[in-house]
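Weekend entry, working from home. Most of the wet-lab plans are on hold until the incubator is repaired, so I used the time to fold the two sequences that have been sitting in the queue since the last round of cloning. Logging both here for the record. First:
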Amino acid sequence: MKTIKLRFYSYLNKFINLDRTKNLELINGRYYLHHYRGRQTIKDRVESIGVPHPEVALILKNGEPVDFSYLVQPGDLFSIYPPLYNFKLSAEKTLLPEYPLDKPKFILDVHLGRLARYLRRFGFDTAYRNDYLDPEIADIAEKEERIILSRDLGLLMRKKVKWASFIWNDDPKEQLKEVFNRYSLSQYYQGESRCVNCNSKLEKIDKEEIIERLEPKTKKYFNDFRYCKTCDKIYWRGSHFKKTEKLLNRLKES
């Protein structure tokens, strides 16, 4: 068998499970020796170890950048880096395709329903259904230029996936923090939300048009309303809005 040496940086090491990965051994606490057969690309080797390609921003081979198609050679030493929140790589070095839209759009897997509602509260176009299949998510993401958020490594390793993040936390608010940090989302929030149920844009509606549907206290104390035509839901700037603003402040401080 042939052997290469790899070093993974930052959280990429969390993807690696030595007990479940064949032909891999840790040396000196930081480098991995990986044994393989035949002709193999570095992308194939990295994903066989458990690291999905959308989480890899830069690969250096003996100090020089290579792309995913590089055919590994015995004795190669690879340094593999994730996206760095506060550092943008030049276009010729990064392995992450440039995201084409001014504001991120997302699609979430079936495990992330509460995160989907949070993202919609902050106005982000977020596709979610609790019966999505992995191929469907990958197809929609490609067609609609959406970033996939998932806890399913198999989904992130699909060949057609361009933009994606693995979500580490179980708690939805911590998941939201992950996404805000990864994609610098605070800069996009303008105080407007989408419908948390169906993701539709909310439209401003005159109070007089819906006054018969309002509870007495809502009718008395609130005058600014939004309406979802798709699911016939009314929104107003009550305690829900204040909680959103408070949560945003915590995200900015973190």
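Second, folded right after the first finished:
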Amino acid sequence: MKSTIDAPASRQTLSASTLEQIKQILWSGKVMPGEQLSIRKTAEALGVSMMPVRDAFSRLVADHALEVTPNRSVRVPVLSLQTFTEITRIRFEIEGMAVAEAAGHANPDLLQTIREMNDALSLEMSKEQADTQELVSLNQRFHFAIYEAAGMPVLFQMIESLWLRIGPILNYDLRQGSPRTREQVAVRHHRALIDALQQGEPEGARRAVVADIGGAYDYMAARTPSLFLPPDDRGAG
């Protein structure tokens, strides 16, 4: 007979797992700005009850990764370009700090892991019909492996939070097969970052990640205005 003492821990584990799965959906860009999310449909897709999904949505609303509309539905926020620009500038600083710190902790295992991820990213980009979800996943895992290696959990949580807020548009160029993807621009930035980490050069690592973030920002800000709120819209974001 199963002890009832295990029940609260099991619920906590399920809630944490559900939250992580929904975070991955946001990070991956499987949902777009303005898209409404159904608790019931999300629960069915994840194979869980509605309670952990409802709890996860509440957490993500508190983190500004989701928002509640006037009719009480939950949707992915639509950011203004001004907010996206502000978040990008913050990312320059905190992700730059993370990779600079990681340059002092980059052991052979980390270097091998991120090199293999970047090689896989390059291979996927070279395919005639690239798996866009795999591109996004590899890019996110590459970055987060380095940020975790910095050994600064508070900083890592801040980075996670910002990626959640901009996840639906963060990797838009990867999902759309843009010229940047075909030319493997991100792969080149990643190689520069790997080289800097291997050589223990914090400033080189910082420059590489800023170039990576900035290149994606420039592309989206200039070519995808439909992703953002109109300049005169005072709504969310």
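Plan for Monday: verify the second prediction. The two ends are 51 Å apart (CA to CA).
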